[in-house]
Amino acid sequence: MSGTVCVVGLGYIGLPTSAVFANIGFDVIGVDVSRRIVDTLNNGDIHIEEDGLGELVKEVVKKGRFKASLKPQKADIFIIAVPTPHREDNTANLDYVVSATKSILPYIKQDDVIIIESTIPPRTVDDVVAPILNEAGFKAGEDIYLAHCPERVLPGRILIELVENNRIVGGINKVSAKKAADVYRTFVNGQVIETTAVTAEMSKLMENTYRDVNIALANELAKISDKLGVNALDVIELANLHPRVNLHLPGPGVGGHCLAVDPYFIVEKAPEQAVLIAEARNINNSMPQFVVDKLAEVLENKKSKVAILGLTYKGNIDDVRESPAMNIVRLLQDEEYELSFYDPYVRQEQVFFPLSTFEEAIKDSECILVLADHKQFKELDEEKILDYAKRPTIFDTRNCINVKSKEIIYYNFNNLYEIKKLQDALI
């Protein structure tokens, strides 16, 4: 298969997808509403961080296989990979998907394949996207082919997993599923499984909901352990020795554009039935406040300086979308703590407060609050902590630091219940 691919949305999924198609020989037009992003990409540079992506984009731009544009162009395959954020009431905001679909209407011709990669609530392809195409004079499933193929990749491994992972392709009818699946078979080494659009939509949402629910169980365990004086991490380690148990680790909350959002798309469509899913969201959303409450036990007063290490929703990436760390920062600012911030992956333009170096952040701090498990944090310079910090204390919400010095007070989810006792002993 060859031809032209038009990808609408050049973010964390759209850009790597564009680069992969271009790399195997397709001519790719990437569309974004930001002129800065378009100009950056056409210069062979990238605007996001992802292993190997910069080199690949530079190569396909140089070869003339990839070009960024502010508007779509005629193509044989259209892929929509725009965000689907949630509103304040936690319903899906499909404005970007609708706008992207309408933007390609003037460029669609007979036999084109239209694929929605954006994560969407069940029945969006049938009830939202197909009517837009049909009202424009096309017959989705007959003269053009419409399908949903959700992304299933892990940040930091996107280029690998785009190729290696299995893909689910759900068509508005069987012929659409086959046409779209053949597109992915040009580069996917994993299975490409054909199904209905609504099944593909629900499958994607349940993948992330499964993880969200299991993280909520671990977070609830952390709260129970704090209440009862139990070592939560020891409990998890021992329970996981059972051959059919795999408890997750607790943390400061759940973030990112998938786990913190996708479960709501199911709750929106079936609120009376999605009781467990909704409660898991509530538990995970409660963790930032839990962290702030425990931090208050660590510190002597709210005038204390807190050094925040890590702002992203997970380690070794630059993505702060839906990050629980950002929620914790807002809560601490509301409490008027003195805060400093260090994250080796985050750029200043991504956040609304000044970033510091590690040394600047920990200087005169009374607690170092670790909110992301970046590789740089796993072996912190303990000599600098002892030299710079006013009070060498670490509260590690990611359970990632191996503290060697006995002079550094260390808290994680294994000993939160001991905070008050240890603090009293220090006074």
UniProtKB/TrEMBL annotation:
Gene Ontology molecular-function annotations: NAD binding; oxidoreductase activity, acting on the CH-CH group of donors, NAD or NADP as acceptor; oxidoreductase activity, acting on the CH-OH group of donors, NAD or NADP as acceptor
Domain UDP-glucose/GDP-mannose dehydrogenase C-terminal, chain residue ranges per copy: 307-403
Matches recorded under SUPFAM superfamilies: 6-phosphogluconate dehydrogenase C-terminal domain-like (SSF48179), NAD(P)-binding Rossmann-fold domains (SSF51735), UDP-glucose/GDP-mannose dehydrogenase C-terminal domain (SSF52413)
Keywords from the named record: NAD, Oxidoreductase
Any GO BP annotation: polysaccharide biosynthetic process
SMART domains associated with the record: UDPG_MGDP_dh_C
UniProt key word Transmembrane: no
Record PANTHER family: UDP-N-ACETYL-D-MANNOSAMINE DEHYDROGENASE
Family: Belongs to the UDP-glucose/GDP-mannose dehydrogenase family.
Protein name, per record: Nucleotide sugar dehydrogenase
Organism name: Rossellomorea vietnamensis
